[in-house]
Design a protein that fits this description.
Layout: H1 5-29, H2 32-88, H3 93-175, H4 179-191, E1 197-201, E2 204-205, H5 214-222, E3 229-230, E4 237-240
Parallel strand pairs: 1-4
Antiparallel strand pairs: 1-2, 3-4
Helix pairs in contact: 1-3, 2-3
Length: 246
């Protein structure tokens, strides 16, 4: 294949733009905010589960406290009624003894139940404190997430803007390259990891970074300026310039 030296040089400019587009694509997919948001998402999910557990415990202990306080109130009311009976002076000796025994039993029962109420209150207070702390941490993670999302959106907007500009520039430049040459370049670029054309610089192919041997150099030297030569190692289009070292 033949192509004017200027078109081959222009092909290097197209390659530079394609490389920049690839860099932008890589940058877009590897923004640090992606990993940060993934970490924050995992933190948020874990904290949310812990918060739900703490809120559930708080709700459970609230019901448990209500029940325990009702039990204390029932025992207290029973003791009041017994005390009223005792104070009435209308009880016989046997009933008097039974009521006194029951009052003593109720006093012990009330003391035990009040201990239960205190224990439940302490557990409820601890659950409330945990829930409040976890709610603050969830809010903090949500705030960090919003900030990271904003940074990501700003970065993507800048990348997309540059990508659009570079793509338009590439479109204009590629249109000035002969169709046959640009088709070969695109084919080789797809096969060569995004690089279809490389400069020959100081006897070295900048595509595969290997230096041409003497036989290869002699073949390149002998080739007409408008002949499209290929690197024997990577098979990319090898573009000659004043710095090729020929």
């Amino acid at each position: 294949m033949n192509a004017e030296p200027a078109d081959q040089i222009r092909l290097l400019e197209v390659q530079a733009l394609d490389s920049r587009i690839a860099q932008l694509d890589h940058k877009r997919s590897t923004l640090p905010e992606h990993a940060e948001l993934e970490r924050l998402g995992a933190d948020h999910a874990q904290l949310r589960d812990l918060l739900v557990a703490a809120q559930t415990e708080e709700s459970d202990t609230a019901r448990e406290q209500t029940k325990a306080e009702q039990d204390v109130d029932q025992v207290r009311q029973r003791a009041v009624r017994d005390q009223q009976r005792l104070d009435s002076g209308a009880l016989g000796a046997k009933d008097l003894e039974n009521v006194q025994r029951e009052l003593a039993s109720l006093a012990r029962r009330q003391s035990d139940l009040e201990d239960v109420v205190l224990d439940v209150m302490e557990r409820r207070e601890a659950a409330q404190q945990r829930a409040a702390e976890l709610a603050e941490r969830v809010a903090a993670v949500q705030s960090e997430t919003a900030a990271a999302e904003a940074r990501k959106a700003e970065a993507l907007e800048a990348i997309d803007a540059e990508g659009f500009r570079v793509a338009k520039e590439r479109e204009v430049l590629a249109a000035a390259v002969p169709d046959e040459l640009i088709k070969l370049y695109d084919k080789l670029r797809g096969q060569g990891g995004g690089v279809g054309a490389a400069r020959l610089y100081q006897k070295r192919c900048e595509g595969c970074r290997l230096e041409l041997n003497i036989t290869e150099l002699n073949e390149v030297r002998a080739a007409p300026a408008n002949q499209v030569v290929r690197c024997e190692n990577c098979r990319r289009i090898l573009v000659r310039t004043a710095d090729s070292g020929l």
